[in-house]
Amino acid sequence: MKLPPGPKRPFWLLNLQFEADPFGYMDAISKRYGDIVTVMSGSTPIVYVSNPLGIKEIFTNTKEIAARGELNQNFALMTGNQGVLQLNGLVHKNRRKLLMQGFHGVRMQACGQRICELTEKIMSQQVVGKSFVAYPTIEDITLRVGVEVVMGLYEGERYDKIKHLFVSVLRHGQSPIDKILSNIFRQRDLGRWSPQGYRLHLRRELFQLLSAEVEERRKQPDSSRSDILSDLIFACDETGQPLSDEEVRDLLLSPIFAAGDASGTALAWSLYWIHRLPSVRLRLLEELDSLGENPDPMSIVALPYLNAVCNEVLRIYPTQLFTFPRLVESTVEIMGYELSPGTVLIGNIYSTHQREDLYPHPKEFNPERFLEKQFSPYEFFPFGGGSRVCIGGAFALFEMKLVLATILSRYQLELVSQRPERPKFGGLICYPASGVKMVMHGRRQHQGQSQPFVVSSI
Ligand code: HEM
């Protein structure tokens, strides 16, 4: 069977080229080979698809294509062997359902005020006239929100340690030195001073703290709590048995990582684009000011231009460039190619979002396109689709809007440099390479407001 075309260079070389310039590399590949491209990893074909018809097939054909957890094993070191990413079939479906209870209507709405307050608290710590790096500042907000929503932890020594460990895990391996050492030592555990040894040390510490929390909560169950950990403690598996403590622990990991990392990255890119383009910032402020002072979070979430800006950020620089891989289990035809069992399929989010036929002038940041046209879930899919679609997509958008609204309406910020921010691939997510350096010019006076805002106490 003939595979779709693709580069013939060795996999490791392609990876190096991709990491050096992720977007440039993806653009070049799409230009040369089109919207269905094969990359060989040893003898396994990996087919990247950026055509809405092919994407629809990947997300909806559950007969021949499976979202196998085994394909996500490389994340298991940090998300546990029984995390949602590693699960299959009915168990996967059921655990997703349990996790998603935490992001439904009333519960999500109840977090709105808290997200605004936390944003205010963190932003008010910035010194006027001094520059700061937006990404870690915003990540502090999104990680706190994540730990609160998922574990129901708000403060205390264990909360601080858990938060610190999540940040350490996310940062580990990101610096050039870490990368060089990782290449020298490969994945060998040569004690705490080797990259893998240190990673395992962080994992042990994090897993111990999470397990301690799970055990304590199991001993003192409280049905009035409305966090995901409580849902999991009271839940039963397919045989009617309670979930084991290890299973509960592993299920907590991916949502907290995603809540902190993916949402934090999307917000850092949002601040970058909004402050790069004065007309976008002005239009947003006009829309936000029209709600009056201290608007209700739900009216912020319903603002059309704010929604369009968030969508455009996730279109132009999707934080996750690709869906998780899917596996062809019986021969399937995709866009005229017959693909054999064993072929890996990946939805190429970035390149679909860069299609000129869907998004004219795709390199331009133009939120208006989302006001003028409705895109299908196979044309615009920053949260993936099908059986592995992001469980926190609606929550992520909700949070993005509230954090942005709070920052923009209350603070005057500016980018330190107008130089374009480069993307940096971190294994799954594409970060702003310099973290988006900004300077705080002080509080913003709300239109028609004579007194400065009062910082709400937490
Ligand atoms: C802007 C923020 C976010 C983006 C862009 C994002 C994007 C994605 C994407 C592209 C996928 C893969 C879907 C697929 O393979 O089809 C995914 C999966 C996932 N996301 Fe998100 N995500 C975000 C925030 C969140 C949040 C806030 C949570 C939870 C609190 C979350 C939890 C997950 C989980 C658990 C999965 C795996 C689902 C599974 O394996 O069944 N994500 N996300």
Short description:
This protein is an alpha+beta fold. The protein has helices spanning 11-20, 22-33, 52-60, 76-79, 89-100, 105-123, 134-151, 157-171, 176-185, 195-219, 228-234, 245-276, 278-289, 297-301, 304-316, 349-353, 369-372, 393-410, and strands at 36-41, 44-49, 65-66, 131-133, 326-328, 332-334, 337-339, 344-347, 411-415, 423-425, 430-432, 437-443.
Characterise the protein shown here:
- The chain is α+β, with helices and mostly antiparallel strands.
- It has helices at residues 11-20, 22-33, 52-60, 76-79, 89-100, 105-123, 134-151, 157-171, 176-185, 195-219, 228-234, 245-276, 278-289, 297-301, 304-316, 349-353, 369-372, 393-410; strands spanning 36-41, 44-49, 65-66, 131-133, 326-328, 332-334, 337-339, 344-347, 411-415, 423-425, 430-432, 437-443.
- It has 2 domains: 1-66 and 324-377, Uridine Diphospho-n-acetylenolpyruvylglucosamine Reductase, domain 2 (2-Layer Sandwich), CATH 3.30.43.20; 67-320 and 382-443, Cytochrome p450 (Orthogonal Bundle), CATH 1.10.630.
- The protein is 50% helix and 10% strand.
- The strands form 4 sheets. It has a 5-stranded mixed β-sheet. A 3-stranded antiparallel β-sheet has the order 4-12-9. Strands 6-7 form a two-stranded antiparallel ribbon.
- Helix 12 crosses helix 13 (278-289) and helix 12 (245-276) packs across helix 18.
- The radius of gyration is 22 Å and the shape is globular.
- It binds protoporphyrin IX containing FE.
